[in-house]
Amino acid sequence: MKHRTLKTLAVLAAIVLPTSAMAKADLVIATDAPPKSMNPHAYSSDANLSYMSNFFDGLLQRKAPEGKLSPALAVKWQRVDALTWKFELRKGVKYSNGNDFNAADVKFTFERMKNPKYSKLLNIANSIASIETPDDYTVIFKTKKPVPWFAETMHQNFIVDKESSVNRDDGDYNTHPIGTGAYKLVEWVKGSYIRMEANENYWEGAPKYKTVEIRPITEESTRFAALAGKQVDIVNGVPVTLFDRVKSMKHIEVISQAARRAIYMGIGNKPNTPFADIRVRKAIAHAINEKEIIEKIMRGQATMANQIPDVPTVGYDPSIKRYDYDPVLARNLLAEAGYSDGFEITVAGPNDRYINDEKICEAVAKYLAKIGLKVKLDVKPKSIFFDELTGKKHSFYLIGWFDGSFDFGRSAEKLLHTPDKDKGMGTYNGAEYSNPDIDARIIASSSIIDRGEREKALQKINRMSVEDVAWIPLHYQQDIFAVVKGKGIKFTPRSDRWIVVKEIK
Amino acid sequence: MTTYLVKRLIQGMVVLVLVSTVCFAMFRFTGDPVLMLAGKYATQEEREQVRIAYGLDRPVYVQYATFLKGVMHGNFGKSYVSQIDALDMILERFPATFELAFTALFISFILGVGLGVVVSINPNGFFSRTIMAGSLFGISIPTFLIGILLVMFFSVYLDLLPSFGRGDTVQIGFWRTGLLTVSGLKHILLPALTLSGYQLAVLIRLTRAGMRETLSEEYIKTAWAKGLSPAKVILKHALRNVMIPVVTIAGLSFGELIAFSIVTETIFQWPGMGNLLLTSIFETDQPIIVTYIMLAACIILTINILVDLLYALLNPRIRYE
């Protein structure tokens, strides 16, 4: 009897095993964040958009490394007037289910994006007043108010198939992507892996790797072990603490490049608080030893920031200087402002959002204590911290920011403009910094169509914000990638951290 | 017996309701899911749209009542993040966690009882002392450290076993198993060892204590005197009597292994329920968290009741009135 059971098991195993032995993928990528949904509009986080960029196309795309806007599903685009945008679409593109791509899909996509049930990219969708499709391959958008960065976001508004999406079950829509992208989804085992297969008929030509697996490994040490054990080919988010060890591994090439995210201290100028006095804000800026933060806490893996936008962003101004580390000057400024005995200040920030965020907050607290302030530290998980930040509970806090649109105008509206619920401004201006002159310039800049003029206007806003210490820039994070050597993998990291597999050669 | 069972079931229901209440009360302090859902570019107005779409604008007690009403119909709500039925999502992950917990239990039971017996026969030998010291180590060292040490040793230095994932799987009906493929078995070894660590140590100590006590009993001496083989005396006469507490502990902790394999699953990126729970906590995906906690409570309660009943079956002197 026992023998028979064993035999049956053996036969069963013999039948099952060979069929299950799936071929190893041509390329295995480990990432530090899992996808949350296969609905391309479910999240505006770069982690999720990165996955979606392989299954879907936007009207436009950005190519590694500098992220220049280039054609994708649209071949030409222009800003006709302050409110009108015109896109000419590519012909002959097909979805992974065989349906043809045309202007009706674009209209459908952007209308669906207004529905909070399907989309969290409400911001751009709600800015649209009307969409006209004069023919199958032309789309004209009219916006409610001038949105200068409208086209700049078109690489992340992915187009879905109207025909198959209208009546699809939500669960299916959220798990089985149908797009025009370079890859088709084969299998998504949540928390484990995503397997995808090349779209041989892709309009840009079939990608190099036929079968690709992306494995989200959130735990840093596990990601490191996978790399050390040669189980993956490309890894993003190599932890700063393990940088030296990864670098010493012979079979791995480490790529470290400046990320777009700027880490800064938000600070306000509310009347009747010490912060209202610009000398106090300057004193705080002078008190922070950013060089030491980069060396000791970031282990050299960060770049000093003099301003919030990064180099490729419209509005970046190379002439802006930072307030140097000078504790003596800081003390003098405090004394001048009448605070020689200091005052109470709370350093707030998240402890699970940015690289070493908690340690940076601790360091800042230490520097402020050195110039005589009575410092309290208040770091907490991001889910609670950001809730408090938008509730304007903090007056001095650490936050990071980078804008997917490569345009400082949108950042300024969210971070710098006086909070105003009705206009939808200053959502993340937690310390409620307010400067009417800057506010007026932000509003005025949004109607400027000419790019050169726009750049000048935004640079001016940027300069004013630093001069008036509306914030204290600390550093740009560094992204660290690792690629296995000897397999001929050519991987150029993107500044937005997306892993667009068709770009890997 | 029936009265006892009914009583226990009613108690269980009360506990579940309490658990869900505590969960809901707790969410007031875990952050606002709308922030994460609406994205960083959303305006205040757009956030409100999302809040209304998810029913989060209503008072907590209304949300709670709606939830309870849904649960009565077996509907635990949809994940905020993926918009998929929360219970389905967790149950989809159940096989992975169950197999991990089962393998861990298997390892700890075989090794724990086996080593416990060996140690009890010659308590002062070098081997026994090493094992006992090791078991103390197993009890006091935290799970994540055991996991990371195992990964460092077996995956990074020796390059023998994979450090993450579940390997190839086979679908049999609704069950997706990794226990039938070579790659699946290789993948389960390290996480199962990690998860079994604590229990293994407990079982060794429990078996040893029981065995040492039993071995000094009169009837064992009689058995030796009768000239029975050592195997018969130790395994048949002594071990059998030690098994009751051992089985109880092993059974009870099986529920815990399933419900709280979170740390191990995270270290090894095991696609189980624990991993899902942790991800959901980061994403403030409250429906998943509540459903998970209630499911965990349910499993533990059920196993407790089953163990109590088994106890009565194993030992007829115990009666439940």
Automatic annotation (TrEMBL), chain A:
Keywords: Signal, Transport. One of its GO terms (molecular function) is peptide transmembrane transporter activity. The keyword Signal applies. Pfam families: SBP_bac_5. Residues 68-418 form the Solute-binding protein family domain. Residues 1-23 form the signal peptide. InterPro entries: Peptide/Ni-bd (IPR030678), SBP_5 (IPR039424), SBP_5_dom (IPR000914). The keyword Kinase does not apply. GO terms for biological process: peptide transport. Belongs to the bacterial solute-binding protein 5 family. This is Transporter. It comes from Desulfomarina profundi.
From TrEMBL, chain B:
Residues 112-319 form the ABC transmembrane type-1 domain. The chain crosses the membrane at residues 12-31, 100-121, 133-158, 188-206, 242-268, 288-314. It comes from the Bacteria. It is found in: Cell membrane. Pfam families: BPD_transp_1, BPD_transp_1_N. It is a multi-pass membrane protein. GO terms for biological process: transmembrane transport. Keywords: Cell membrane, Membrane, Transmembrane, Transmembrane helix, Transport. One of its GO terms (cellular component) is plasma membrane. Its main location: membrane. Residues 1-101 form the ABC transporter type 1 GsiC-like N-terminal domain. This is ABC transporter permease. It comes from Desulfomarina profundi.
